[in-house]
Specification:
The chain is built from four helices and nine strands. By secondary structure, the chain is an alpha/beta fold. The protein has two domains: 136 residues, ATPase, nucleotide binding domain (Nucleotidyltransferase, domain 5), CATH 3.30.420; 57 residues, no CATH class. Strand 2 and strand 3 form a beta hairpin.
Length: 226
């Protein structure tokens, strides 16, 4: 068994998936929104065991870079980069909202928004066309400030009134791994879109480019991304 794609996302919960080409072999979401450090590496090991695979079988890694909370994103990105460096395989960063949009666009069938909980009574969101192509965002704002259009995404778990009757769909790392060629590569800088909670508030950044927050990932990350 070889040429597997490993997916990791820790923007909401810890999601880990494994794909062989376009086929999702296994996908698992574990823990809660505050257990990323304890769960991420263990989840990778468990899903490889379920597939009867080894780390050496992984040919590529895709990691969700947000938007999401500062600490959660850092755990996922560092885990992916560390594995990428150890295995000498490329690591690709994707926006988690893009993955949800790609999975949902055929069901929605028109322009729509994808939302995720940003805490502080706010949401991360981006706007997509009927094919799942991102038109603008991601942004961070109050739920009431979203444009009037269909809404999908993990944020509905916290704000169900944004789309009554629509079930919240989570970011699936297995889907990311199986659909990597169709997802835009946005780099490996985390999309936090605002300053960490531990720092004094400052002007919020809302666009994909200006919203990047550079992190001192450390020596383990150097050379991991290709």
């Amino acid at each position: 068994m070889s040429d597997l794609v490993l997916g990791i996302d820790t923007s909401v919960r810890v999601s880990v998936g494994l794909a062989d080409g376009e086929r999702v072999m296994f996908s698992s979401t574990v823990g809660d929104t505050r257990s990323h450090v304890e769960k991420a590496a263990l989840a990778v090991e468990e899903i490889l065991n379920k597939a009867g695979a080894r780390l050496a079988d992984v040919a590529r890694i895709v990691v969700g870079v947000g938007p999401g909370p500062f600490t959660g994103l850092r755990v996922g990105i560092v885990t992916a980069q560390g594995l990428g460096e150890a295995l000498h395989v490329p690591v690709t960063g994707v926006c988690g909202l893009d993955a949800v949009a790609l999975a949902s666009c055929r069901i929605v069938g028109r322009e729509f928004a994808v939302v995720a909980d940003a805490r502080r009574r706010e949401v991360y969101w981006a706007r997509y066309d009927a094919s799942g192509l991102r038109l603008e965002g991601p942004f961070v704002s109050r739920p009431v400030d979203l444009p009037s259009m269909p809404v999908v995404g993990p944020g509905l778990e916290t704000y169900p009134d944004l789309a009554p009757g629509v079930a919240a769909c989570q970011i699936d790392a297995g889907f990311m791994a199986a659909n990597l060629p169709a997802l835009p590569d946005v780099g490996l800088e985390p999309l936090y879109l605002r300053q960490p909670d531990a720092e004094l508030p400052s002007t919020r950044k809302s666009t994909l480019v200006s919203g990047h927050l550079r992190l001192p990932i450390g020596n383990v990350a150097r050379g991991g991304a290709r």
